[in-house]
Write a structure and sequence with these properties.
With 320 residues, the chain is an alpha+beta fold. The protein contains ten helices and nine strands. The protein has a seven-stranded mixed beta sheet. Strands 8-9 form a two-stranded antiparallel ribbon.
């Protein structure tokens, strides 16, 4: 690693992400998820207006022309607000090799993963495209030509009855574009890790037990400290992986796969700890903590699982 290697996003990139995050707090209140897991038309339109779906598109095509680092930082913010998986799929589909007249920026894309003879996708009633992934590839399909049957509404997963009912691909993503999708997965999961840390700390400061805040108890302090370390590791690894992609580093693939594993592990661990810190309230349907754990599980499933990411990391040859 040379002295010129950049390890963190620059101040301008952080400021841009901060501006978008401030808008997301109003656009994506967690309370909306108790009514619907989908983003309504007004919310989707607002996300389009602030440029969420055109982060890396060329300016001549109506995009912002930004890089992977800005995209990852904004996606972290979306993950913190539990944006619908179709939001991330639509951002990812912008990297598909489609012509400029496809109108992709105005269309919703549902997220899906194929494992063997089964296809799981996260339902979105407004989506008309499907971003289908498996362990080795990703492709974009017309969703209207597919037939699906209910599998488990509680986890937002729906099973296609047969793979042959999928339309021919509208676009096939190459290996580098598939890697970009995994970076988005890592960023969204990193956002969950950060959000559950913030929620846990806030609750520990206000929840009183035995006459004092539960945050003063050593066990809760240890949980919050471990969550903070996990969230910071996930963020640093994910942003460094994005920088590696922007700078075309030789170890980009390794950094992104590590970001997915670290981010996913942190999201699961922190979401579980968040529920534990909230006690009985954390398990209740009207509270928010359980939403983060469920969403982390869904995003990891759509990404192909952490075990697969770990196996890809183990199989890589790293030169000294």
């Amino acid at each position: 690693m040379t002295a010129a290697t950049r390890l963190h996003p620059c101040a301008e990139q952080l400021q841009l992400a901060s501006t978008i995050e401030a808008s997301l707090v109003t656009l994506l209140p967690l309370s909306r998820l108790h009514a619907s897991y989908e983003e309504d038309v007004k919310t989707w339109s607002s996300l389009e207006e602030i440029g969420v779906f055109r982060i890396c598109m060329d300016e001549q095509h109506g995009g912002s022309g930004l890089g992977a680092t800005e995209e990852a930082l904004i996606t972290i913010g979306l993950g913190q607000r539990l944006a619908a998986p179709s939001v991330f799929a639509t951002i990812g589909a912008a990297h598909a090799p489609l012509d400029a007249g496809s109108g992709l920026g105005k269309r919703r894309v549902a997220a899906a993963y194929r494992h063997g003879a089964r296809v799981l996708f996260v339902e979105d009633s407004q989506a008309d495209l499907l971003l289908l992934r498996d362990s080795l590839s990703a492709s974009l399909h017309s969703l209207r030509s597919c037939t699906s049957s209910q599998l488990d509404q509680g986890l937002w997963l729906v099973r296609m009855s047969e793979i042959t009912q999928l339309s021919a691909p509208l676009a096939q993503l190459d290996a580098s574009q598939l890697l970009r999708l995994r970076l988005l997965d890592a960023a969204a999961l990193t956002g969950i890790a950060q959000a559950t840390l913030d929620m846990s700390v806030a609750y520990a400061q206000t929840r009183m037990q035995f006459g004092r805040p539960i945050g003063t108890f050593q066990a809760v302090k240890h949980h919050c400290a471990n969550m903070a370390i996990a969230a910071r590791c996930a963020r640093d690894q994910t942003t460094f992986a994005a920088i590696a992609l922007d700078e075309s580093r030789d170890d980009t693939e390794l950094q992104i796969e590590c970001a997915l594993f670290v981010g996913g592990s942190a999201a699961l661990e922190n979401a579980g700890k968040c529920i534990q810190i909230h006690g009985g309230m954390g398990f209740s349907d009207e509270a928010d903590p359980h939403l983060f754990l469920k969403r982390a599980q869904v995003l990891i499933a759509i990404a192909g699982g952490l075990e697969a990411a770990n196996a890809r990391i183990a199989s890589m040859r790293v030169d000294a």
